[in-house]
Design brief:
extended, TNase-like domain-containing protein, SNase_OB-fold_sf, alpha+beta, 2 domains, single chain, Staphylococal_nuclease_OB-fold
């Protein structure tokens, strides 16, 4: 049996420990981080369906829109028919066709053109090639075109020349002009494009941002080293940063001549 004095000492030690335990230790930093991560992931799972924004919890959101896609100033959007390789003029200009049924200005299609489209479809079914040719001329002269749809039907489409907003690529006969054109063809050939229209340039071309299956075409051409940021007319810092931060330098940057590019190889 222990001496009474020893028991008293032990009781004192116990109470001393109990007193310490009442001062709750702060939770482990690792535990706090784990709990926070679980909460953030739970919030993200409810918002992943959004294509424009990813929200982690209720306080932290990340924009998923590609860089440079500032839609302020957009007048309307066009959804094109699949692009033909011959429609690419150079590294910054494309000719596209838009189904008039889905065109923002569909109500402005001349009645003569609508009727010519209907009559030409009938003439094609009847193999009346003379009449087909005459009606086609009416359609083409008005800036429209008939193209065959997936089901074999004739689609009346409006022709537009598109100038890629914010970049400048060498023309076909300039150094690396061929490479720029070929890269743009490779990217858009056979694809339907979404084009955000901002303005019309002095050549009558529509100026817009081009989206090809989620790829921001201007950014793509900049990253390939086949265009430079047209900062005189486009002041988007996002595109300017892409151009400046690339792991290469264009001849334009070295010589101050904006007409020769060294592509990223």
């Amino acid at each position: 049996m222990s001496a009474p004095g020893c028991r008293q000492e032990r009781r004192g030690s116990f109470h001393g420990r109990a007193g310490v335990s009442e001062k709750r230790a702060p939770p482990s930093l690792v535990l706090v981080c784990c709990i926070g991560a679980i909460a953030l992931l739970a919030g993200a799972s409810r918002t992943l369906a959004s294509k424009e924004e990813l929200c982690l919890g209720s306080f932290w959101c990340i924009r998923l829109t590609p860089i440079g896609r500032n839609l302020q100033g957009v007048k309307y959007e066009l959804r094109t028919l699949p692009v033909d390789a011959k429609a690419v003029t150079d590294g910054d200009t494309i000719t596209v066709y838009v189904n008039v049924a889905h065109h923002p200005e569909s109500s402005n299609v001349p009645q003569e053109v609508r009727e010519a489209g209907i009559e030409r479809s009938k003439a094609l079914e009847a193999n009346n090639y003379q009449k087909t040719g005459d009606l086609l001329k009416i359609i083409l002269d008005a800036g429209y075109r008939q193209v065959r749809g997936i089901g074999g039907e004739q689609i009346l489409a409006k022709k537009h020349r598109i100038r890629l907003r914010g970049i400048d690529a060498p023309e076909s006969l300039m150094p690396y002009g061929k490479e720029a054109k070929e890269e743009l063809v490779r990217l858009v050939q056979g694809k339907s494009l979404k084009i955000s229209i901002y303005d019309t340039d002095w050549y009558g071309r529509l100026v817009g941002d081009v989206d090809c299956d989620g790829v921001f075409v201007q950014e793509h051409m900049l990253r390939k080293g086949l265009a430079w940021h047209y900062s005189t007319y486009d002041h988007r810092m996002e595109l300017s940063k892409v151009f400046v931060d690339l792991p290469f330098r264009t001849v334009a940057q070295r010589t101050k001549s904006p007409k020769t590019l060294v592509p990223l190889l």
